[in-house]
């Protein structure tokens, strides 16, 4: 008699999107579809979509785009989603899209990388990588009448953890949340606020 053990394999999705507000809706819809296909509970999908919206909106509003959209791998293809050209990775070609030069070649536009990954332990991570900004992403304390400044506060409330990673020429803001069970939210006393 053979004993079989099933184990969930971590899965991820990465997309390169143009640096601009239209990309936010495209990324949200793709995340919602992808997580729904993986049978993630709807409340978790709603939280993940809101977190991704806040991170990507901040990247498009405050940060510089990455240089030309990075190479996404062999077999990379472009999808037009809601009239926005989106690079979808799979193996070492750059994502299509950009401006045509006088010599007929394409100069890729700058963009933003969006990634989500479901880990074997049931934690979903969301990442947005851009070209950085003059200031580091930090939650603000807006007044009651302010029109903005609440995005990272929302991320802080919904995510079990979040942070910022720096690399030469790029900044990644990430957030993690439990995708299989609704764990208790973080409580005060977090040392990350420094």
Our estimate of the beta-strand percent is 25-35%
The poorly predicted ranges are 4-9, 70-97, 182-194
Average the pLDDT over all residues and give the rounded result: 74
Q: What characterizes the major β-sheet? A: 5 strands, antiparallel
Tally of contiguous helical segments = 3
Query: Which strand order do you get reading across the main beta sheet?
Result: 1-6-7-9-8
**SSE series:** EHHEEEEEEHEE
Number of strands: 9
Shape: globular
Cα separation of the termini: 56 Å
Cα-atom Rg, whole angstroms?
18 Å
Instruction: Tell me the structural class.
Output: alpha+beta
Helix content: 10-25%
What descriptors fit this protein?
5-stranded antiparallel sheet; alpha+beta; globular; 3 helices; disordered C terminus; two-stranded antiparallel ribbon
Tell me about this structure:
The structure is a single chain. 23% of the residues lie in helices and 28% in strands. The chain has three helices and nine strands; from the N terminus they run E-H-H-E-E-E-E-E-E-H-E-E. It is globular, with a radius of gyration of 18 Å. The chain starts with 10 loop residues before the first strand and ends in a 16-residue tail after the last strand. The C terminus is likely disordered.
